[in-house]
Amino acid sequence: MDLAVVALVALFVDVLAEIAIMLAGPTLAAASRILAEESGMSADTVLDWLLILLHLSTSAPAGMTFMFWLLQARLNAQSLTRVPHRWLKTFILVGWFVPVVNCWLPKQIVDDIWASSRPGGVRGGNIARETHSGLVWAWWILWLLANGMTWLSTWTFAAPGHRGLAASILLNAFFLFPTVVAAILQAAVILRITHFQENHVLRERRLLQERRLALQRSWTERTEETPVGSQ
Questions:
Q1: Contacts of 125 (CB under 8 A, 6+ apart)
Q2: Which of 6, 16, 183, 199 has an alpha carbon within 20 to 30 A of 218's alpha carbon?
Q3: For the chain, how are helix, strand and coil distributed in percent, rounded to 5?
Q4: How far is the C-alpha of 45 from the C-alpha of 155, rounded, in Å?
């Protein structure tokens, strides 16, 4: 749960930073003009790089903590089923950075973790054929949409003279909605999987305690039934 909390906090900070960047639009535009005069670059270029650095300063830590949580969740999930997952643990990191593949592979990793962790676990012999979670689907679609829009807002309007200084700020404001919704759904995925896995641990502890108590009762009954002289 500790790593899940860290991932949730990093995600929350990332969303707040996105909102702050949107609200700071006029200030960023003014700062880009000042920096452009000092550096000799165009104000558009300075603004683009400023936005990229600001986004990376919070999205990179949020992404890394999520991947660390995902690795822990994967290890926990593997202990809950004998059915193998589709991808090696290496792809938990690599899968996010390979073009095209990163549009579907990370979701499959989360799908397998979900299927192994949910109550009842994997119900067949092939984890790829398990019923996929609607929550995971919703998060992934919104995540792809939000990242696609962020890419468009950063690069499509990056050509000099193609837009005014504040255009990318306005685009970020427009694209902020799917980003926030995707973050909320991602937090829900983290909480649900963590809840599933913690329930497994609690259930195992309860069963172990019940077995221990049963053994103690059995030993007590045998002791009481044994005649004193035969001891």
A1: 83
A2: 199
A3: 80, 0, 20
A4: 11
Backbone region of residue 120 per phi and psi (left: phi > 0; alpha: psi in -120 to 50; beta: other values): left
Q: Which residues contact 193 (CB under 8 A, 6 or more apart)?
A: 73, 110, 113, 114, 117
Identify the pLDDT of residue 167. 60
What Å distances lie between residue 151 and 156, 167, 175, CA to CA?
A: 8, 14, 10
Q: Could you list the residue range(s) of the whole structural domain that residue 68 is in?
A: 2-219
pLDDT in tens, 145-155: 888 876 666 55
Residue 215 lies in a domain: yes
Is there a domain that residue 144 lies in? yes
Residue 121, phi-psi category: left (phi > 0), alpha (psi -120 to 50), beta (remainder): left
What angle is formed at CA 63 by the lines to CA 46 and CA 106, rounded to 5 degrees? 120
pLDDT tens-digit series, residues 126-152: 898 888 899 999 999 999 988 887 666
Q: How far apart are CA 103 and CA 97, in angstroms?
A: 10
228 assigned to some structural domain: no
Please give the structure tokens belonging to residue 57. Answer: 């300063």
198 part of a folded domain: yes
- CB under 8 A, 24+ apart: contacts of 139-148: 139/182, 139/185, 139/186, 139/188, 139/189, 140/106, 140/107, 140/110, 142/178, 142/181, 142/182, 142/185, 143/182, 143/185, 143/186, 144/103, 145/178, 145/182, 146/175, 146/178, 146/179, 146/181, 146/182
* Average pLDDT value for residue range 24-37: 78
Give the span between the Cα atoms of 126 and 112, in whole angstroms.
10
